[in-house]
Design brief:
Blueprint: E1 14-19, H1 33-50, E2 62-72, E3 81-89, E4 95-104, E5 110-122, E6 127-128, H2 133-139
Antiparallel strand pairs: 1-3, 2-5, 3-4, 4-5, 5-6
């Protein structure tokens, strides 16, 4: 079975640093695969905050993650500081993709790449809705 591949853009919209916690380490003494989802979730919350949004209020609607792809490139260990760069990509009428590049801050070595599909959601009426105009204006047209 071929490996998943993720092409990354040349431009990212946000960057943050996240230390690897002891709870992120697995029985093999390196960053666990499940921890990558937690790390990109933290980075995503910081991204939203940076632009004046919340996951549950992006100029009105909230967001839901519809899918995820993780591609591992190298190990990371307790105490490493990871740089997580985020790009908004593949904007559609009702959603978009976040693309993540995760590198070791000290070595510059790539640790992982990830993609999460995001849709806009009206939690009160329990339905997917259109992308807010302000979000679209910040990151381009579909």
């Amino acid at each position: 079975m071929p490996r998943a591949k993720l092409e990354l853009p040349s431009k990212f919209h946000f960057s943050t640093e996240i230390p690897v916690r002891i709870t992120d380490i697995n029985y093999n003494d390196h960053l666990g695969n499940d921890a990558i989802l937690s790390i990109i979730h933290e980075a995503r919350v910081r991204f939203y905050k940076n632009y004046g949004f919340k996951e549950l209020d992006v100029d009105g609607p909230g967001t839901i993650m519809s899918d995820a792809i993780l591609v591992y490139k190298s190990e990371s260990h307790y105490g490493d500081v990871l740089t997580v760069d985020i790009a908004v990509d593949d904007m559609q009428k009702k959603g978009f993709d976040f693309l993540y590049l995760i590198t070791n801050k000290d070595t510059g070595k790539e640790v992982a790449r990830a993609k999460t599909g995001i849709v806009f959601y009206d939690y009160e009426n329990k339905r997917i809705v259109d992308m807010p105009a302000r979000f679209r204006s910040l990151f381009g047209q579909a």
